[in-house]
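Bumping with the actual sequence this time:
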Amino acid sequence: MRKLDLHGIRHEMVRYKVIRFIEDNWDIKEEIEIMTGNSKKMQEIVEKVLREYKLEYKVGDFLGFNKSFIRVVLG
């Protein structure tokens, strides 16, 4: 699974990084993971981009304990 780690990235650069990551991996037809840490603002920025691309995604793990990443279905 391909991953984008946003730790240490300034909020104003998050949108650009996520768009670039999605477009670079658009044709892989598998899940990708975007690590946001526990920053609510960063998660909101990422989720907004994912909604714009109309992508299916889930915040955190299946049990709901770890919400520091977003798993996205491409294809």
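The tokens above came from a reply further down the thread. The chain is about 35% helix and 25% strand.
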